Amino acid sequence: MPEIPDQNPEDEFRDLLRQFLSGGSEIDPRELARAAGLGDDPAVVQQLLSQFQSALDLSGDGINWSLSLEQGKAVAERGRQPSLPDERDRLLQAFHIAALWLDEATSISELSVTPKLLSRTEWVVATMPVWTQLAEPVANSIADALTEVLQEQAPEDMGEMIAGASKMFRSVGGTLFAMQLGQVVGQLSTEAVSGGDIGIPLLGGTDTSEQAAILPQNAKAFGEGLDVEPEEVSIYLAVRELAHARLFRHARWLRLQVLTSITEIVRGNRINQDMMERIAENFDPTSPEALQDAVRSGELLEPRSESQLAAAARLETTLALVEGWVDVVTATATSRLPKSGAIAEMVRRRRASGGPAESAFSTLIGLELRPRRLREAAAMWQQLTDAVGEEKRDELWSHPDLIPTAEDIDDPAALIARITGPAPEPDDVDQAIADLLGDDNPDRPKE
User: Fold this and answer.
1) pLDDT, tens digit, for every residue of 216-233?
2) CA angle, corner 108, sides to 106 and 110, nearest 5?
3) Which of 42, 374, 408, 442 could bond to 415 as cystine, CB 3.0-4.6 Å?
4) What is the pTM of this model?
């Protein structure tokens, strides 16, 4: 057979992959789907193959995050239930009550838009921009590492072809990661009760039409695990969601600070090259358990650096302060509910342990979203509220330099003393500014 001397190496590799996708390979695509963490459901496998085909047709270097959205929506829609009109009516009424009760518990003003009720699929669509923003650095690292290892381990006679197909490797690696992220977010949609349930600001970004939301299907499931009247559960969940949303709308710098801290941690992740090489050397496409285990356990990610650990500590403190404040405000606002304490304890336990999908996301990008010091932070906010009142307490959210620190969580008394004590003596710079402005000049006219 005559040779084709001018065949592009990338086209050759594309042809090989197309042969696999058309069934010309002995590799079972169901095993590939399981390696991606997608199970072996026939519909999922078919979707995987279709989306791989789309990935091969892409010419850019970027990851096609629309695959995450499609996969997430597909997972969310599997457990779809009827519209639950009774639950929806109960939650809409609960939002009205919650807004009134919160006005008595915090000086932070109400939202600018009406809270929403979202289906699981709508929650996936609304929150996916944040998930992809957080996951992108890890996805790029894995795609880079996959390309590098395959290039290093390829036989010499295939080196030119592999080098020419580097974009293709990145596309395939990115596709696998994007679909796995979609799977995790889809599962999260079956666990999350509201927009603020995960702890980070998933709503209220550039789209100001969504600041607070509850998922009726999941709220109903949450209430079924409690010996509490459904109306009480609805009001409690509405108060908590509105408190979380009000805080992030009021402290506009807070959302950026949280997401920046997360990005700083995730961007610093490095792939364990030794682990990647060992997996590549012994990888059997028909038995992908080694790759599965490495991804699920987080072993593909190197231990955090010192800068990552510092950023993680700052993030954990911030999340603890946010959720501790929400806990205290919610407790005050729901004090009329006979069993608010029982609901609060269930929320705290659920938040501390998280669900399977939340754990999977933490492993996938190497980020823990559960603040360990939530109870201590809540205790600090309660002591501060008792000492200085709600208005002075909430003033601390007016600027990032004013919010309490980890040391304040350890020693609330010192924080209270700092707030209630006399104003500090001006230093030399303050005095110089005051002299320049003439603040000490008795002849200066008073406004």
Assistant:
1) 999 999 998 788 999 999
2) 105
3) 408
4) 0.79
